[in-house]
Amino acid sequence: MKQTRIIVNRYGGPDVLRVVQDECPEPDHGEVRVKVLAAGVGMPDVMAREGVHPETPRVPYTPGWDLVGVVDRLGDGVGSVEPGQKVVAMPIHGAYAECVCLPESELVPLPSDLDPAEAVSMVLNYVTAYQMLHRTAHVTSGQRALIHGASGGVGTALLQLGRLAGLEMYGTCSSSQGASAVSGLGATPIDYKQQDVIAEIRRLTAEGVDVVFDPIAGTHLWQSRQALRRGGKVVGYGTTTTLRNVGLDSGRTGRRHRLHGIPIFGLYIMCGWLLPGRKRIIPYSIQTLKRLKPEWFRQDLTSLLNLLQQRKVKPLVARRFPLTEARQAHELLEKGGVVGKIVLMPGSTSLESGAT
Ligand SMILES: NC(=O)c1ccc[n+]([C@@H]2O[C@H](COP(=O)([O-])OP(=O)(O)OC[C@H]3O[C@@H](n4cnc5c(N)ncnc54)[C@H](OP(=O)(O)O)[C@@H]3O)[C@@H](O)[C@H]2O)c1
């Protein structure tokens, strides 16, 4: 059976995303073939495409961190799932395809009545947000949080889960559409392009916040530390600065550079420990925690899917694209101002998958 998938043959801009047709893979022993219904598009995909994410595979590879699909074929020895069952998974790469083979242990069952685009948003974005809140920062009701990139995929997940946890929240964003999404999700928006974020936090909270969630990295981590009250924490979880502030468009290396931005991150973590004020900078990585504690990933994803089914969370799906328009999806994400998650829908056409 033929399938369409996306491949990256060399690291670079959105134009390196190629649509190819080849045979659907056959599942090996212990593997399951899944027909992909929805694949998430996020900054980690963009960074891997550029060669600067710690999880960047060697070229050629098929991108795509997370997916929702239907079990299509079982390899020998598989016993926990059945053909036709809906599942979610986070393979880290490979999801931009119509068919993907994954180890049985990677699959988490999905209630069949959930929208695949909403469900896929729960994987990378909501598990990241949930684990940062509850497993890294250990937030408690009534605490104050500053959320950078608050209108983005992870940011909107942090806002929804932060509200459920009873946090008082402040969220940075740069557009009026972003600001209305941030205030609609219960936080005070701060325009990071027009305002001095730290001065604004001081004005609004006097002593500072208990926790800052920072996906920007670089010197931004140190600024985030200035928003903390004594004993507060910055959870650093991304290197968005790599793409936006430095601008890979002007300085692409075309090489795999998986440690990009990591040494300076390490320096700030160390300084956080050494300087007075007990203001810590703590790193979070979903893939590292999943490798160390796979049972937490399953448990947290299952709890989040339950919250989705009960409509206690409502992921914002910014736009649905057909699989063949992966390039346009990346271009849109990189342009900025996207509110929520972009999703690729294999098997749908342009007309069917238009903006939601
Ligand atoms: N560590 C982990 O396990 C993990 C997991 C998932 C994601 N991540 C990382 O998290 C980051 C965000 O991912 P995402 O998928 O949520 O991306 P996204 O949907 O594109 O959101 C990124 C957000 O960052 C904002 N932004 C850009 N520059 C900013 C700045 N200087 N100050 C404040 N906000 C700024 C953007 O706002 P505007 O559009 O308004 O400019 C946008 O809302 C990426 O670096 C990704 O690699 C890490």
Describe the structure.
This protein is of the alpha/beta class. The chain folds into 2 domains: 2-120 and 307-345, Medium-chain alcohol dehydrogenases, catalytic domain (Quinone Oxidoreductase, Chain A, domain 1, Alpha-Beta Complex); 123-289, 3-Layer(aba) Sandwich (Rossmann fold), CATH 3.40.50. The protein contains 11 helices and 15 strands. The strands form 3 sheets. Strands 3, 4, 5, 6, 7, 14 and 15 form a 7-stranded mixed sheet that branches. Strands 10-9-8-11-12-13 form a 6-stranded parallel sheet, sandwiched between helices. Helix 2 (116-136) packs across helix 3 and helix 2 packs across helix 10 (294-309). Mean pLDDT is 91; it is low at 244-250 and 351-356. The structure holds NADP nicotinamide-adenine-dinucleotide phosphate. NADP nicotinamide-adenine-dinucleotide phosphate binds at residues 42-44, 47, 124, 128, 148-149, 151-155, 172-175, 178, 192, 215-216, 237-240, 244, 284-286, 333, 336-338.
Give short descriptive properties of this protein.
single chain, 356 residues, alpha/beta, Quinone Oxidoreductase, Chain A, domain 1, Rossmann fold, 2 domains, seven-stranded mixed beta sheet, six-stranded parallel beta sheet, 11 helices, binds NADP nicotinamide-adenine-dinucleotide phosphate
